[in-house]
Amino acid sequence: MSKIGLCIKLQHDKKRQTRTDNVLATSNCLSQSKMASSRAPYEEVKKLGVGSYGEVYLIKYHKKEYAAKVLHRLLFDPHDPGTATYADKFRAECERLKSLSHDCVVKYVQTIIRSDTNFPVLIMELCGESLTTFLEHSPTKPLPYHVELNISIDVGRALEYLHENSVIHRDLSSNNVLMVAGNRVKVSDFGMSKLDSVNPNRSLTICPGNVNYMSPQTFSNPPQYTTKLDIFFFGVLSVQIVTRQEPNPTDRHQPIPHQSPGVCREVPEVERRAAQLETIADDHPLKPVSLKCLTDEEEGRPTAASLVQTLKSLRGEEKYTQSYEKELHRSHAHKEREREKRMEKSHRSRHRSRRHPRVQLLPNEIKLKLLVVGQSGVGKTCALRVYNGEEFACQECTVGIDFCTKTVQQNNHHITLDIWDSAGQEKYNALTKAYFRGAQGVLVMYDVTHRESYKVASDWIKATNMNVGDAEMLLVGNKTDLQDRRQVRDMDGRNLAQEHNISFIETSALRNENIEEAFSMLVGNIMTKQPHTMRATSPSITLDIDEDEDEEREKRSCCLGRRH
User: Fold this and answer.
1) Does 149 lie in the same domain as 46?
2) Does pLDDT of 215 surpass 60?
3) Basic and acidic residues bias: where (predicted)?
């Protein structure tokens, strides 16, 4: 096809898309009225949004909350005699997708064919807001680097899993990436890509999805693309994450100077997106990753597996750990300010009486940084979740470095624990000193059913001594509930601990056995052997407030309590 002909075709496609959008707008109204039908086997709570394939509702289904996608009428025209066949094929395809399970992919629960419309309704796991909304409203600009990287890794892992299961997303955008707890994400709407193959008679654009995310291959006629299409989408999305700007590329074709009117050149994708790319610093670790994903030729783009491997390697760099520490300190400062506000408000809002009840102030808070290290799969994250009061749950391995904060009372001390959980895939010699910096305690864990993890524990102990020699260590043998598969004896663990002059305990995260005791033992050892790392504490202060005291005396009393 000549370049002039291509320009004319693009204009024709634009007009056809306008007609399609008009039909979609009409179908929105129709599907909304159908949603209220009493024949639906679920309870509609509220409308969450509208997408290119349908409307999304918050529903109650079997007494639980889910997201329901009601597909546009355009996709399953009731006047088309083949609609029932299309619906059956699509439901069968969704049943296959329902079997897919990954912690970075939104779970499909059920596909329902509405009896009143014969349209499929997709029941899905309910997640949080879209990445689009998160980027628009997040108070931190730019996002902390560790958040940028974690989101990128989650999306990459989702694509890797889908591609391994022969699924091409074809519509990846910030609208189809949903936020979950801890600023992590799940990819949604990957099942929508199957609609095109189910109903071949449906009027389509060149390729499903947002045109601002599309790669050159999607504009060919017919479209020619592989899983590398999703990698291009990822490149666009990663730029959006870093810049917090919606993709806005220039025209794909530009007139060639001094040539006949209508003679155009095809603009390379990196050039089309140069305005956004130039706002990213050249030393930003994600920039070269994005550029490689945005190459025009599919052969130049990485696979999802190699992409994830590259992203995970960035976790070992100091920039990642420094970003986490900065966020942790910011969080602590915020919590401290909130605590002081609550204390002051409590003092000012007490009831006036002749003699006010005695107010007990806690001693100064002690803060400890603890690390949990060990080979991947030994149960570090599960043990940490159980210790934090959550239910035991088998899950994917930690990505990067996560942390949680827990406040405990021990030996009459009010102690705040910052517990850092590292990804076991990291090599012990790849963790930076910044990760170990300031740690007072390290919990080294191995799996009693996996001999290799026991051997690796020695290397973690050596790495800890090298990076933070004065930290207290505790060796933990986990998964004692699997006695029939035990490969490491209790005596082996004790001997290793004795060799390095550290404490030892065996635990079961599944049964919640000795988890609390393990952390209490480590904290107790720190309090006993490292008093110089503690903040000075004072006994509790008792304030007796007389009803006739004036405002100035009240202020002095409150300040006195805080100084102690």
Assistant:
1) no
2) yes
3) 321-343
